[in-house]
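Tutorial, part two.
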Amino acid sequence: MTSTPFIVGITGGSGSGKTLFLRQLMNAFTPGQICLISQDNYYRPREEQPLDENGTCNFDTPLSIDFELYASHIRTLRDGKRVEKLEYTFNNHKVKPEMLVFEPSPVIVVEGLFVFYFAEIAGLLDLKVFIDAPSYLMMKRRIVRDRDERGYDLADVLYRYEKHVMPAYEKYIAPFKSDADIIVPNNLHFERALDMLITYLKGKV
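Running the prediction step on this input gives:
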């Protein structure tokens, strides 16, 4: 790459609909045009995760993320070099982690709960997008995801939502909503905002 890539940061609460938004965004481009590097693959090992007052691992805190490595890999992509990182499988022993390869592209999408909170990462972003949704919808989506994709039982999901997810949202995510260049309301749909973002980013390719 001869020019500096355009880096987009996308955040929102857990269950706000980031995954679907990102999937549709990525589908609008060819692999050589855009690269998605997600915070989800930068969780620290389980033995390094912080514990709450009941001894339960709290994955919904900035302390759970190796943000130094994440920021370093974003800078590497920005500098036109490929990045390799072992996939994080959320402690699902049924899933064998793959070696993920991130190729430098004209547009780089940086996604995760705390990408606005980490100053070192926020400083790398050329555009900030916040996916917004009401708390009852975020809770519903979180329950379905954690039950179906991660195998957690309902009591565990509700405990984590009350003790970890919402406190983290209120402390580390919601306060940075005002830093966003684009706020996407995702109560029912986000197609218009998505189309606008796609059109804008295609001008960067």
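The longest strand covers residues 6-12. In part three we will examine how such features are distributed along the chain.
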